[in-house]
Design goal:
Helix content is 37%, strand content 15%. The protein has 6 helices and 5 strands; from the N terminus they run E-E-H-E-H-H-E-E-H-H-H. Helix 1 packs across helix 4 and helix 2 packs across helix 3.
Length: 199
Amino acid sequence: MLLPYLNKNTIEAGCDEAGRGCLAGPVFAASVILPADFSCEKLNDSKQLTEKTRYKLRKIIEEKAIAFAVGMVSPQEIDKINILNASFLAMHRAIEQLTICPEHLLIDGNRFHMYKDIPHTCVIKGDGKYQSIAAASILAKTYRDDYMQELHKKHPFYDWNKNKGYPTKKHRESIKQYGITEHHRKTFKLLEKQLSLTL
């Protein structure tokens, strides 16, 4: 059973990202403030859920949340500042869009760059421990999946409708055959035995 909050009587926002390990596409992050009495039995880390369940839960989260927002950082920005900093920036962009300013942030993972002067707590595997982080993981994942589905229509060779930009065999074979797009992260190891890649 996921915990409803870390600090009672505090406006607490859970934050999580999706797409850190991908070869293509942006990194997305979400920030969610849930009511203290929020309860949803199926809520869990997005990686533990089926696609169908994730989208059902997204609807519930968006209906019941006090506030939620999604931020993204482009592949070009990822190449410039690295994926760890890009993940933090995506979370910052989500937090700054919240219609209510949180008093505390619950961050999935073990590191974070402080956002303004809002205190934060990093929680390793927090998306399987706290409701608000789990909710953020579901929004980040589903919004990113939607984005990759749209990119797939323009670049069907890479199988992004299925792999969502992750390094599958088919994805890497397509990079070898067709080269890269503007959506690929050039600083990532795009091919298994990468000596050089024409950019």
